[in-house]
């Protein structure tokens, strides 16, 4: 192991030890105390807006010459986005406490009374790229659910992350909770990520949020449990019974509202029976988007560029979308199922039976009917915020909010029973 690896491991172990001590305090904190910490942190974010924007300007300046506009948009903070971060903290404070809920109670013939009760997971390691608001959302959700968190944001957002964590820690301190419940990795050394993934006994769960490369790194190297969030290769399928104008409006929003978010539409699948009407209208409505189509789609409108096989499996995170024409619902389902990343897919149709069939057949975390894929967001689901969209099938799936950040244990009440 090199000196840099040793330093990274030592740093992560120190953070982990402090986080475990803080987690034991946070797990026993009352709802009122946790809510007070969230509201104080929200106020701290609002007061620190000028300093936070200045820190973010440093981050943006460091990558402005090397990254596309969609990347800069993910990194950029504005007054409205800082206000939205603070508002999300207040919204999370207003939500029911997920800790201490009795999930089930049952009595045994021997007189034992058993309760299954929700508890925090413990210490969460959050590894994410570019979007600094993820640090505030993840910290707030962990605080409310009684978990300590260690944040490892991308080096490109380090100045913004530092200021956000300071505001979150100010809220903890004001409420009498340990500031170590929310910490950030203080080194840009990439070995810190590997050290987090090996920190068994210190970190209970690692959640990566970023591109496929990051998620696959975590999947392949982690020795601690993980909750994976794969890329968003999301589809909108225009069924033959779609309201064409409605469908075009939904697709435009799903693709172009914010191209750099994981809920953006990347591929548009169109029934052959309506393709001659949909494709030209799509090109008319999205002149600011590069459309890449199969041979049939390009023949219908020359504004489309020819697509390659790679396009069907690409998360562009940019003003680019692929267009595929299929022969009916069965082929549409088959195509989406073959190429979706399991994040979010949508069907646009006025046929309720077709919608139901598509929604049950597509094995994605979120499946929508006549709605923009950009609603794939914990805040839009009423969760206040999200740590990310889980694309696996175990423990949590879809937006990960308060409920998904808890586990459970059994409380067994007796009156001196002994087992024969």
Q: Can you walk through the features of this model?
A:
The longest helix is centred in the N-terminal third of the chain and has 25 residues, at 3-27. The chain contains 14 helices and 16 strands. The strands form four sheets. It has a seven-stranded parallel β-sheet with strand order 10-9-11-8-7-12-13, with helices on both faces. The termini are far apart. The protein is globular. Strand 3, helix 6 and strand 4 (148-152) form a beta-alpha-beta unit. The protein is α/β, with parallel strands linked by helices and 420 residues long. The chain has helices at residues 3-27, 31-47, 49-63, 69-75, 79-94, 133-144, 158-174, 191-197, 212-221, 244-256, 272-285, 295-300, 329-339, 352-361; strands at 102-107, 113-120, 123-128, 148-152, 182-184, 205-209, 234-238, 265-271, 290-293, 305-306, 320-326, 344-348, 366-369, 389-390, 398-399, 406-413. The mean pLDDT is 94.
Q: What attributes characterize this protein structure?
A:
alpha/beta, seven-stranded parallel sheet, 420 residues
């Amino acid at each position: 192991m090199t000196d840099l690896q040793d330093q990274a491991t030592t740093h992560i172990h120190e953070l982990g030890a402090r986080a475990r001590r803080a987690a034991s305090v946070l797990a026993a904190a009352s709802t009122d105390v946790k809510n007070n910490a969230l509201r104080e942190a929200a106020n701290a974010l609002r007061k620190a807006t000028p300093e936070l924007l200045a820190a973010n300007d440093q981050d943006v300046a460091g990558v402005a010459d090397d990254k596309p506009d969609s990347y800069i948009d993910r990194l950029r903070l504005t007054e409205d986005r800082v206000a939205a971060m603070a508002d999300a903290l207040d919204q999370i404070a207003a939500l029911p406490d997920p800790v201490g809920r009795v999930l089930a109670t049952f009595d045994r013939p021997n007189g034992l009374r058993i309760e299954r009760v929700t508890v925090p997971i413990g210490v969460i390691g959050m590894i994410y790229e570019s979007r600094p608001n993820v640090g505030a959302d993840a910290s707030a959700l962990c605080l409310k659910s009684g978990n300590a968190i260690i944040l490892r944001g991308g080096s490109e957002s380090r100045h913004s992350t530092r200021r956000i964590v300071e505001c979150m820690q100010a809220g903890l301190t004001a409420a009498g909770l340990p500031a170590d419940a929310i910490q950030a990795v203080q080194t840009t050394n990439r070995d810190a990520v590997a050290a987090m993934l090996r920190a068994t006994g210190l970190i209970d769960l690692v959640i990566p949020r970023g591109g496929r490369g990051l998620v696959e790194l975590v999947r392949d190297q982690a020795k601690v449990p993980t909750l994976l969030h794969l890329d968003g290769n999301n589809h909108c399928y225009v069924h033959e019974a779609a309201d064409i104008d409605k469908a075009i409006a939904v697709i435009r929003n799903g693709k172009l509202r914010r191209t750099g978010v994981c809920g953006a539409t990347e591929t548009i699948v169109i029934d052959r029976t309506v393709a001659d009407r949909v494709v030209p209208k799509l090109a008319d409505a999205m002149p600011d988007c590069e459309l890449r189509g199969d041979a049939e789609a390009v023949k219908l409108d020359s504004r489309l560029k020819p697509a390659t096989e790679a396009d069907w499996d690409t998360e562009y995170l940019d003003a680019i979308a692929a267009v595929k024409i299929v022969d009916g619902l069965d082929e549409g389902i088959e195509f989406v199922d073959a190429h979706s990343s399991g994040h979010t897919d949508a069907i646009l149709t006025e046929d309720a039976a077709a919608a139901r069939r598509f929604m049950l057949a597509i094995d994605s975390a979120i499946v929508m009917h006549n709605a923009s894929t950009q609603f794939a967001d914990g805040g839009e689901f009423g969760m206040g915020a999200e740590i990310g969209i889980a694309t696996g099938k175990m423990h949590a799936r879809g937006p990960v909010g308060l409920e998904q950040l808890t586990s459970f244990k059994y409380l067994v009440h007796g009156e001196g029973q002994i087992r024969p």
